[in-house]
Amino acid sequence: DQQVKQNSPSLSVQEGRISILNCDYTNSMFDYFLWYKKYPAEGPTFLISISSIKDKNEDGRFTVFLNKSAKHLSLHIVPSQPGDSAVYFCAARSLLTGNQFYFGTGTSLTVIP
Amino acid sequence: DTEVTQTPKHLVMGMTNKKSLKCEQHMGHRAMYWYKQKAKKPPELMFVYSYEKLSINESVPSRFSPECPNSSLLNLHLHALQPEDSALYLCASSQAPTGTGLYEQYFGPGTRLTVT
Predict the structure, then answer these.
(1) A49:B104 CB<8 A
(2) What percent of chain B has pLDDT over 90?
(3) Nearest to B106 by CA among B35, B40, B12
């Protein structure tokens, strides 16, 4: 039972344009959401997070938006750079489950120079 | 230092072998995790240790045996594995949850395990 879903397995974007990665979840008890970036042969690296009390969090070129009513979050990368090419995972956590993080299936982003 | 280290990077073992994966962090984190990741799939949680005690075991077969000797180290002992256990094994650490604490997990680079 996949509680966090990323319906687009891949995305290609031209360098300099905006990349939008989407994530949906089913558990309304999730209170904290994270995005991780993963290069081949490396572990996931934390990118940005958002608490359920906010609807937007920005860090440099990366912005995460949360729409709780739609149970949807998205990661915007502007402008996209070739070095952003990687697999992006969204993850979610509920305080009720403490240390348990639920991961989406990932979206492979390719930024074309 | 925000690094989680894992050894070995690659491991090939037969179905009758016994081997161990090691993970280390020096960030003062009191929660440590083992995940298994197959190609094109999300990381699957196996075990969570919180304050050196096993707090979550996601119905993992007994051929995988975790151990947390101290707050910086996490081991995964492997015995009598099957070819379908071949995967990338990721270790992660984080602060232990307290109240409404929001925290991220830091992942190691993983051990690529092949069972022949």
Answers:
(1) yes
(2) 75
(3) B35
CA dist A80 to A23, A75, B103, Å? 19, 12, 26
- Tell me whether residue B95 is exposed, middle or buried, using C-beta atoms within 10 angstroms of its C-beta: 0 to 12, 13 to 18, 19 or more: middle
> pLDDT category, B97, cuts 50, 70, 90?
low
From the list B41, B50, B91, which residue is nearest A105 (CB)? Answer: B41
CA B36 to chain centroid:
8
With contact defined as beta carbons under 8 Å apart, do B69 and B49 qualify? no
- Joined together, the tokens standing for residue B101 give 């604490």
| E strand segments, A1-113 | 4-5, 10-14, 19-25, 32-38, 45-51, 56-59, 62-67, 72-77, 86-93, 101-103, 107-112
Cβ-based contacts of A100 with chain B (< 8 Å) = 45, 48, 56
Q: What are phi and psi of B83, to 5 degrees?
A: -55, -35
Residue A97 tokens, joined: 């489950």
CA-based nearest residue to B7, from B97, B70, B74, B104: B74
Query: Quick check: B98 contacting A, CB < 8 Å?
Result: no
Sequence-distant (≥ 6) Cβ neighbours of residue B95 within 8 angstroms:
B29, B30, B31, B101, B103
Query: Given the DSSP bridges, would you call strands A62-67 and A56-59 parallel, antiparallel or unpaired?
Result: antiparallel
pLDDT digits (tens, 9 = 90+) for B21-78: 999 999 999 999 999 999 888 899 999 998 999 988 888 999 999 999 999 999 999 9
